[in-house]
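If you are new to this repository, start here. Below is one unmodified record pulled from the training split, so you can see the exact layout before writing a loader.
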Amino acid sequence: MYFVSITRLRIRAWRYLPLFFWDALRTGKQARQASGNLSMAVLPDAKHTYWTRTVWADEAAMRQYMSSGAHGKAMRKLLLWCDEASVVHWTQDTAEPPSWPQAYDRMVQQGRKSKVKYPSDAHLRFEIDRPVVRGSA
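And here is the target side for that same chain:
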């Protein structure tokens, strides 16, 4: 069984974007090099919103990545930078990444809010807009 992790983050103010992009480059590099990572993709969406989609050999590999290195440091900053954040995980039989529409459906049906210091009204209600996907999913 393969472990899928989907995250959605909305950066609450433009002033946080340069630091967010810097951390995104570092965490992306960490993910690509992480043991057990089978695929990684980022979807920039409207209103400073970003989705991530990773597939892992198992949950332990994802948890090791999540709590270490650049990603571990970046997670603490997102409490302040984001006004919306959510995550969903599941296991599946194939290593094929889900499409973005499938990721959205899972997020809405089975996802959970992540902690943010300044939540938007949409975050409090767990209302998530369908991502806009250009090109192939």
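Two things worth knowing about this chain: Residues 86 and 114 are 5 Å apart (CA to CA). The chain has five helices and five strands.
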